[in-house]
Amino acid sequence: MSSDHHDGEHHPSAWGPHDWSHGAPHNSWSPIIMSIGIGIFLYTVASVYSWGNMVDSSSIPLVLIGLMIILFGLLIWWRQDASFDGIYEPKASGTPFQNIEIRKVAMWVFLMSEMMVFTSLFSTYMRYRFGIDSCQEVYESGSWIVNSQNVDTGEAVNCFLPASELIASSWFHIAPGAINTFALIISSFTIVQALRWAKKPIGSVDEEVRRKRVYRYLGSTWVLAVIFLTLKMVEWFVGFYIPEIGPIHEHDIMSLVDEGYTIHADHYHPHHGWDDIHLAELAALHPEDYEAYLSAVGPNYEPTNAVMLADIRVSSSTFFVTTGTHGAHVFIGIIGLTYMTWKAWTGGYTPQNAVSIEYFGLYWHFVDLIWVIVFPFFYLY
Amino acid sequence: MMKNFIHSRSLVVMTILIAAMVCTPLVSSFPTGISGVKDSGCNCHGATTSDSVTPMIVGLPEVYNYSEVYELTVSFTGGPSTPGNINLGGFHLWASEGELSVVDATVQQYNPNEVGHTEVGNDQTSWTVVWTAPATDRNVEMILHTNSVNGNAGDGAGSSGDEWNKITKKINAPILVLESANPYVVLSTLIIISGILLIITITYIFYRTNPDSFNWESFEPWIADWLTTTDHKKIGTLYFLAGMFFLGIGGIMALMIRIQLSVPGNDFLTQDQYNQFFTLHGTTMIFLAAMPLINGFANWMVPLQIGAPDLALPRINAMSFWLQPVAALLIFTGVFSGTGADTGWTGYAPYIVSETAHVGTTMWVAGQIMLVASSTLTGVNFLTTIAVMRAPGMGWMQMPLFTWSILVANLMLFLSIPAFGVGLVQVYLDRVIGTAFYDAASGGDPLLWSHLFWYFGHPEVYVVIVPAFGVISEVIATSARRTVFGYRSMVYAMAGIGVVSFIVYGHHMFTSGMSPTLRFVTMLTTMLVAVPTGIKIFNWLKTMHKGSLIYRTHTLWALGFLITFTLGGISGMFFPSMAMDLHFHESYFVVAHFHYVLVGGTVFGFFSAIYYWFPKMTGRMLDERLGVLHFLTAFISYNGLFWPMHRLGIWGMARRHHTYFISTEEAMGSLPAEAAGWNMFISISAFLFFFSNFILIANMIKSVIRGQKAPADPWGGWSFEWMTSSPPPTPSFPLDDLPTLRDANEGHIANEPSAIVRWFQGLMVLDDNEEEAGH
Ligand code: HEM
Ligand SMILES: [Cu+2]
Hints:
heterodimer; A: Four Helix Bundle (Hemerythrin (Met), subunit A); 2 domains; two-stranded parallel sheet; 6 strands; disordered N terminus; B: Immunoglobulin-like; 19 helices; disordered C terminus; binds protoporphyrin IX containing FE; binds copper (II) ion
């Protein structure tokens, strides 16, 4: 579809490419279409699921339609940007940012709000992590036995079980998260390399070499981001298999969901068991803790193989939603990278418009930085 | 070919849009259960009704006799229920009037209006109950639900395979009673009328643009241009239209609230409907009326005032706008089927994550999420624009105060709204996929929501008032024909409000059991807000003191603002005092206070802005006489509407309650007898206030049709927006020819006020006249 005959008109097509150089407003269908898509998406998701149950599977196609509409809007947006050759990159006129690219300032401002998003998620985490007794402590105190919260009555204790307790339990469990950390850090490097090559002054480098370098570096960033999300899915839902290698014996590494660590886990107990026989042995091993145990259960208590059940929905909700929000940022990054890699492949980046790689790079570094904070808090500690 | 293609596509988009607008609010979100039935312990088995089950009530008269006792046989046939099953069925019967009671152990009474089967009674298909008819004339409605049960519950299969159905019966009173209108019908009729008016207005404006080509071929590109525009002025107009529309809708809801409260013990709205009405009134007014109005003026004026060609990110700006109408549809989902949000605009947990809260609440949350996204994008845009796109030579301290106010407001909004957004996403996930952020049973902390909400909520109330400060500064300075007194202190005061707003939100949680130390600190920081606010009021007064005031309509509104806002500020100073707050909390004193600052502050500020900037935006002058009439009627009825609420609050009339009772000779109520009279007075004033604003609408329409052409600078304003033509060209300033700052005291335009205004002026500025004579 060509819109050539629109060129030179003041308002070119609201669907198609623009000549950005004259700086006038450019009509676009994209905002209204994307808004409708988002509305449909939020509406239909809540029609399909309610309180964690699928109540209306017939609406699932509508969810997909919502997503398609959003994507369609995005494609229009991109189509209009694809002609963005960087000749018109608006620069600041006012102090104190004179001559800085306006969109760069906008990106920094946007990151400020992103920072607040994650701050709020961390506030939630801290409120629950420090405000709710940890499951391990509740278990070791033995108080759950007296409150008869065990298999017999089916009652569960409210306590906080950090995901790190499962993840940091072995090197294999932590492997996906650890690899992901490196993947993101390396991708921060590759994106900078892409920028460096795109920025090299014209003439100082063969244009074909530039094209290849830029799209390969952007492509590797894309691959690393995809690795990140894939491993995340493995860690959450799939799990993996360890063959017999030397001293390691063959076994399955279970995913978090398979371990029972889900947002619906209101009667959780680990597969190693939280039973009172084990607890009595523990208490005997650590006499200094024994007193607390005794005062909770009384001196005449005979272990009966009662099991502590825990309601850990709050812990798992914080874990999945915080790391999930970060994952969503990575996903959005992948969508952006897809476009940029394609554009680089067509030779779309020159020193004139290399800054747009920088804008994305700012976002990408931010996502990386957040992971560097999320990882120790949710995976190690 | 190409053109047709584009046309048909925009046609499709518009059709989808209109269809969505028409359908969405009517959708009842989930077809499960009927509220009221569940609450009493009788659950409907299975998700949807089943036609094979036939419920019956035998023994009901067509017309009842006063107080007569009727024995009713309730039964059903059909469904999976077969003799010999362990369980056969159950029922639930509700009667709107009279009293239901039981005769044997198979039936239990939940309350005088509801009965249902007992444990013993679920092995039969027919039950006997007794209904005592009312002693007066009432229209009675009965609703019967029956479950036909297959008896597999014992096998652990629960209610699977069971089916239910319901019937409704009407019994007439001996003397027929006229039914009061159904509030939903009233509301939807009014909304539809408003919508039609909006469409007529749009069509008319189009007609005016070129009366010769009034046809679809030229309408289509015209409307498509509005739907796709990224020009800050057009988007500003869109915001403005949306804001005015929702101000009307919110007002209609307020009127229905006031009808309900006009007499004690009224039943125009049920409790359940009342909850939805005040929730949607608050939400609409704050998020769909006040904020878009602010954005409308900010979009229009900020680029003009700082000499920028447009906002920094025009397409993002369009995105900010278009998220709003879609969000509005979500927020209103379920209202007409009685399942709209009923949480209050604060959406407190744990109620908001309980199944008792209507299903529409989920959509309310979804809509709010979209509004948060919209505000974030707006924030990015304005902060960037103001920071980097000022015309050369305009430093921070040369910026007009309205631009400053938008900067401060957006900064506050921007840093606080993510907390709200995160809270909303958590609630959405709780309600949809079943996370447990606010589920108290799993250890979730409802107060966390209050923290996240008020961390945003308090800055938010300043976000809606600070832009009004900006408007008032502009208007008073221009009207007084001098620069604003203490420009720098004005800027610092606004910045101070911005900073302090983040450390006071605890005052909304005084009664939540927070620590006394924190309460004390919050009390002090909250009272601290009065300092910068006081500075501003002082500066406004001082600006007028040595200026020579011209009384235009916008000046009158600014003066009105000074009075009402100061009153609202004073009543606001009662709340940070803990001892007082414990008494006033959740009373009409609070309602009076926040309407004094929200209506008397924000809305009056923006009325002033309309009269001030309308000529700039449309190129047409407004009629001053209608303007003064609007001011006088609205200002007086406004005070009649909200002033008595202080007294009701002190008497103890509770906020968010669907009715109240007064003490009479026969019965004790919680309010003194005069309360009824005052409430009626308030309701009448509410109608007067609501309708007085139609004068403004009429004024605007009249001006667009045959208003005087406006000069570039009708009021003698000195900031950049007055230096372009009215209306301004696009781009607003040519990139290569940005304006330079003019001296503030230079070049007043001889500005003859109208007769009424001169009369008003004669009443008020004798001193100044003398002073001027002395020169
Ligand atoms: C015609 C004008 C108006 C009338 C008659 C009116 C009346 C009322 C009344 C009676 C209530 C209390 C309901 C209750 O607690 O039971 C209320 C609540 C409220 N109003 Fe208005 N109001 C008007 C305009 C406005 C405007 C212009 C705004 C904001 C810009 C506003 C914001 C609110 C808010 C935020 C609430 C609290 C809702 C809640 O409790 O969740 N109102 N209004
Ligand atoms: Cu507050």
